[in-house]
Amino acid sequence: MEEFLKETEFCDFSNEKIKNLAEHIAKNCNGDREFAVSAFYWVRDNILYRVGNWQRRASKTLEEKEGTCTNKSNLLVALLRYKKIPAGYGVMKVYGQTYFGPIATPMFTKFIGKISTHTYAVVFLDGRWMKCDPDVDKKFSENTSYFSYTTELIEWDGHNDAILSFNKKDILEDKFPIESIDPWMKKESKNAKGIALKIANTYINFARNNTKRVSNVEEFEALFLKYLKQKYPVYFYLFKWKNFLKAKKY
After folding, report:
1. Looking only at Cα atoms, what is the longest distance across the chain?
2. CB environment 183-199: b (16+ within 10 A), e (fewer)
3. pLDDT in tens, the chain (250 residues)
4. Which DSSP string do the residues of 22-88 spell out, in sequence order?
């Protein structure tokens, strides 16, 4: 169990900002369970979800206020370990192009690797490991989950597993608990980079803030492309020049 309390290069819970946040969260908590649940909700909604650029220490994720599933889980683990609560990681190998579900519109699916990795946090309470996945922030969920089951808001009570909604057939492997993911954190992305990554995160921010309802994901994609052309024409035309868009006029 000592391995699940250790500080690592990327789980740097001795950082002053992480310590201060943990103490702030702990002020209104009685016991480990209440702290773990409160830390989960803080990370879920205060660190906005993004894709790519996961090579970040927990302290850097806190500073940037955004991160991938890996970054968000790593920050949660850092907060838990600082408070001497055993915590670690769960790592899934998934079929990337289908695992993300409807939120990954047709224009983005081609940039997702055939096999992707999803990371979530695990915490040891009441003599057993529990999964708690702080992946999707509340605002992103509120404006997308009505058409995308994979962005349904994850609630955790500190007693049961709380994991991302998914199609089980898309999961190839699910390993937990893992004490450190530092080697994975150091790896460079093969697919999520360059102009495609910038547009993907522009899409996520658009989805998070868009309040216009659509009837299907294709309609949502068209809505985003019109927004992209208007607000970020350079991105739009670079994307189109590389033949990444369907043969439609936006």
Report:
1. 58
2. ebbeeeeebbeeebbeb
3. 999 999 999 999 999 999 999 999 999 999 999 999 999 999 999 999 999 999 999 999 999 999 999 999 999 999 999 999 999 999 999 998 898 899 988 877 877 888 999 999 999 999 999 999 999 999 999 999 999 999 999 999 999 999 999 889 999 999 999 999 999 999 887 766 788 889 999 999 999 999 999 998 889 999 999 999 999 999 888 877 665 554 454 4
4. HHHHHTT--HHHHHHHHHHHHHHHHSEE--S-----HHHHHHHTEE-HHHHHHHHHHHHHHTT--EE
C-alpha dihedral (38, 76, 112, 99), degrees to nearest 10: -50
In the chain, what is the straight-line distance between the N-terminal and C-terminal CA atoms, in Å?
56
Stated pTM of the model: 0.94
- Binning the chain into helix, strand and coil, the percentages to the nearest 5 are 45, 15, 40
Using CA atoms, how far apart are residues 99 and 151, in angstroms rounded to an integer? 12
CA distance 116 to 71: 15
Judged on CB neighbours under 10 Å (0-12, 13-18, 19+), 151 is buried
66-67 and 48-49 strand pairing: parallel
Residue closest to 100 by CA, chosen among 167, 154, 200: 167
What does the alpha-carbon distance between residue 206 and residue 149 come to, in Å, rounded to a whole number?
18
- Domains in the chain, CATH or no CATH each: 2-187 (3.10.620.30)
